[in-house]
Amino acid sequence: MTAILRQRLQTLVETLPEESLLRAESLLTDLTAVSPAISPQEASLIAIIERRLPPETQTRLNTLRQRLTDETITEDEHQELLTFIDPIEQMDAERVEAMIQLAQLRQVSLNTIVQEFLPNPQKSHVI
Q: CA torsion angle for 69, 72, 78, 84 (degrees, to 10)?
């Protein structure tokens, strides 16, 4: 299986235009980079930092925010939107605290940690 997969990938790479080839090289370099082992404490902090609302909750929140912006929100929807405030503020506070702790653990600046976890449109797994 591995030999067949390698052959298919090689064939695909050979057909790429130069611009795509450069992007593929960058991606493959990232994929093959050896990540240092992280401690359970660091893994726990990263999990808190990367925690997000469930997709269906985020979709509903986005819908309500858009209706508020469009001034088409009903009173019931507005009340529903207000129920999101406390949980989101709590998640944000926990995320910031985890970033501070991670910066201290790694002995880097908070800005370094913030930059590491900023959404990156080139990474498809980031929301």
A: -40
Contact by Cβ (8 Å): 96, 102: no
Cα within 13 Å of Cα(126), Cβ side: 9
**d(C-alpha 36, C-alpha 2), whole Å:** 26
What letter would DSSP give residue 125?
T
Q: Is 7 exposed, middle or buried (0-12, 13-18, 19+ CB in 10 A)?
A: exposed
Domain ranges of the chain: 1-34, 37-127
Per the confidence metrics, is the pTM higher than 0.70? Answer: no
C-alpha span between 56 and 69 (Å, rounded): 20
pLDDT digits (tens, 9 = 90+) for 46-75: 999 999 999 999 999 999 999 999 999 999
Length of the chain as a residue count: 127
